[in-house]
Amino acid sequence: MSDLSAFGFVLPHWFYWGWLAVMPLIMMALDRWSAKRGKQAIDLNAEANQKLQQIEAEMKGTIGYTYEGNWFTKSVDWISEKSGLFISFWTVNAVVFYFFEVVMRYIFNQPTIWVHEASFLLFGMQYLLAGAFALLHGAHVRVDVVYNFLPPRGRVGMDIFTSMFFFMFALALIITSWTFFQNSYSMDERTVETWGIQYWPVKAMMLLGSILLLLAGLSKLIKDIATFVYLGREQRA
Q1: DSSP secondary structure string, 34-80?
Q2: How many CB atoms lie within 10 A of CB 150?
Q3: How far apart are CA 103 and CA 96, in angstroms?
Q4: pLDDT by residue (tens digit) across 53-90?
Q5: Alpha-carbon distance 122 to 116, whole Å?
Q6: In terms of Cα–Cα distance, which of 231, 184, 188, 223 is closest to 203?
Q7: What is the pTM for the complete model shown?
Q8: Distance between CA atoms of 120 and 115, rounded to whole angstroms?
Q9: CA separation (Å) from 203 to 79, 177, 185?
Q10: Which has the closest alpha carbon to 55: 146, 159, 129, 126?
Q11: What gap in Å lies between CA 24 and CA 178, rounded to an integer?
């Protein structure tokens, strides 16, 4: 890092990346410890869980069958769930960062050079990594003009058919992300702002997020195919 002593306190690069890696693990461990001790655990995922339960109830009501999954789908779904919970704790950092910026700017008249950049990089990585979690909980945008008029098996079949476009996008995203990451890491790319933090970890999160999204799509496809086959057998019976 260059000499930034004239700007007051500047968050070190190593501490920023290390804190983002460790802080969610600490929060998850504390939440788990609190739950074990019989205290009221903080469930930051309550709304998502409630929505998933509603979707499952609707599926059981309209389809009458929900595929429980195999070892692969259960493993991928667990990773998608935990990755979403992991990055959800990053939002706390953004609140703390901007609070620090407001205090320094308006009380001490010493605006920071790193808070805004640290926050928008944080939000960007959250967006990249949340794709698998959103797919698991059915939170992605879907055009329902035709979908809602189809019977239950037709909806599952539509999901299977449209998955080929999803996998084209996911594979293209992985290839592009790998190229971005490789180029960024080889040149030690840094942001153009005064803080000058490394940019290749953000490109790495883009690659990781696209891989998680692809795995979540494979898990969903397996479950959709199993449901489609079951409904076909049920109709014939």
Answers
A1: HHHTTS----TTHHHHHHHHHHHHHHHHHTS------HHHHHHHHHH
A2: 13
A3: 11
A4: 665 555 554 455 567 778 999 999 999 999 999 999 99
A5: 10
A6: 184
A7: 0.84
A8: 9
A9: 20, 7, 9
A10: 159
A11: 25
